[in-house]
Amino acid sequence: MLKRSEILLRALLFVPFAALLIRAFVLQVVQYRSHREYVESLRVHVRSIEAPRGRILSRDGVILAWDEEELVAHATLATDFQEVGKIIGSERKIELILNGRLRVTEAEAIKLQQAGVYIEKKYIRKYRGTAAHVVGYVDVSRSGVTGVEKKYDSLLKGKPGYELVSVSPSGKVLGRLLTSAPLPGKDLILTIDSRLQEYAENLLKRSNRRGVILVQSVNGEILALASHPSFDPNILTQGVEPREWNLLVSDPQAPLLNRAISALYPVGSVIKPLYAIAYLEKFNQSDLIVNCPGYYEYRTSTGAVAGVYKDWYIAGHGLTNLRKALRVSCNVFFYQLALKLGIEEMKTWAEKFKISYTTGIDLPGEVGGLFPDPSWKQRRFGELWYPGDTILCGIGQGFIVMTPIQILNFFNTLANRGICYTPHVLLQIFEPSTKSTEQVQPSISLTVQISPETWSFLTNALVEVVEYTDGPQDEGTAYQAFKGARFKVAGKTGTAEVGKAGQRPHSWFAGFSPVDRPQVVVTVLIENAGSGGEAAAPMARRILEYYWELKR
User: Fold this and answer.
1) In whole angstroms, what is the distance from residue 81 CA to residue 524 CA?
2) What is the full DSSP assignment across 460-522?
């Protein structure tokens, strides 16, 4: 028989145990459904953490594009709006209620989290505005749309991180269980010199004309690429209203257009060195001497005048050989040189230099030019090729159109005596996590075999374009623009008729400096500005003066 004390002790032990059994029965059987729903509602959410996009810098260390961090508050079912109002004020509280989100400071974010507000870290892309056509911009999803932002989007965007977040049924964040940090994008250092770029942009802006200035190291590195008018990429990153976007894309000034690589122009006389090379490689330089009276009459085999073609210098250049023809840009000489070569020979040399091909610059949107021939005209218009077509091609008119970057590429080949380096804007890739740098190496896009005598002749003739003076009939077309310059330049002007009544011609200058061991190539195009010597050449001089000033 158990003693009364033992019975009492066992009863005391059984009662709480029985209570636990009863409670377990109630939880697991009677209230199973409601508790299961509550427990299962305590979800663990996987949330993406945005990665900071890599910076874009100029070669001289100026930051051209970067990310700015912002904290965004999101309302949840657990948000205590009365407390929120005390933290951020009634007006901003209403904004949070209406929009469901609000940009806040770090101090505000700490307090708002206690009031049931979810805080998210976001990044906003910002731009200096320099070299907008090179740098490009991103859209609202932070993907590259144009320029370097698009071309090297995969390098810049990094990899997002993730966090496991415990969230209550009301939406309140109870805790962060696990976080995988995002990997920031790589920084890109461009070949662009910000000082030279901004100087070029200001030159174009002050000219009050649409145009392009290109400055390139002879190894292909683009030091400046200015296309005017330009645009502010900051207004595009957060999205624009449809009306604003339509106004921007329909603007007759076309500020979004990168004229350096995406706009085609008649090239005028800057192409004449190509024909000079073609002639010198086939004929003796003294074989062709022309008397220029200021016009050229093309006659048929019967002697009838089929067409009259004018020279830019109405008084005429008198007796002219190839060297003088390049120096004074005598159209009458090149009309006849073109007929002597023939369009097929001209086309052959255009192909050797790939003068109308895309250059392969590492920017999206580059277009190819056009150097025509009889088969092209037949396909395009269903018409025969006439001698007049050849005559016009001889001065860079007619059907010939190219981009400024293609002319720059051509003069890069001339500066390097037959070796052309692919133009590029990326100089280095910097990996923030490892602090390592990858250098972009120059690459050769083409090589043209030409005799040393031809190179010597051509270089001397292009020097005379900027240095020779002996009266208006013989003076180099860029002499007045470069008179007194302290550096040596070899170059060529161009005056390209646009074919529209009342519009002035486009003004071109392309050249390289110094002459013996070239370091830099420059191309300037000013739309509807007059002759090459009048507008483009003076601007080329100023940009080269500033280049050499920076070098000192």
Assistant:
1) 61
2) HHHHHHHH--SSTTTS-TTHHHHTT-SS--EEEEEEE--SSTTPPPEEEEEEEESSSS--EEE
* Nearest-angstrom CA–CA distance, 467 and 487: 11
Question: What does the chain come to in residues?
Answer: 552
* Residue partners of 201: CB distance under 8 A and separation at least 6: 130, 131, 226, 228, 230
The candidate with the shortest Cα–Cα distance to 546, out of 493, 487, 502, is 487
Cis status of the peptide bond prior to 52, with omega within 30 of 0: no
Give the bridge partners for 71, in sequence order: 104, 121
Confidence of residue 151 (pLDDT cuts 50, 70, 90): very high
Distance CA 346, CA 272 (A): 11
Q: What does the pLDDT look like over 157-198, one tens digit per residue?
A: 999 988 777 776 666 666 666 678 899 999 999 999 999 999
| Global pTM exceeds 0.85 | yes
Q: What is the residue type of 502?
A: G
- In whole angstroms, give the CA distance from residue 309 to residue 329: 15
Look at residues 489, 495, 518 and name the one whose alpha carbon lies nearest to residue 413.
518
Q: Are 398 and 389 in contact (CB under 8 A)?
A: yes
The angle that helices 272-280 and 343-352 make with each other, rounded to 10 degrees, is 100
Tokens representing residue 476 in the block: 């180099």
Distance CA 353, CA 359 (A): 11
Tell me what pLDDT residue 9 has. Answer: 47
> What is the helix (H) or strand (E) element at residue 163, kind and residue range?
strand 161-167
Neighbouring C-beta atoms of residue 543, cutoff 10 Å? 23
Q: What is the dihedral of CA 232, 233, 235, 236, to 10 degrees?
A: 140
CA distance 430 to 526: 36
d(CA 252, CA 245): 14
What DSSP designation does 342 have? -
Give mean pLDDT, residues 212-234: 97
Nearest to 333 by CA among 347, 323, 342: 323
pLDDT reading at 376 higher than 70: yes
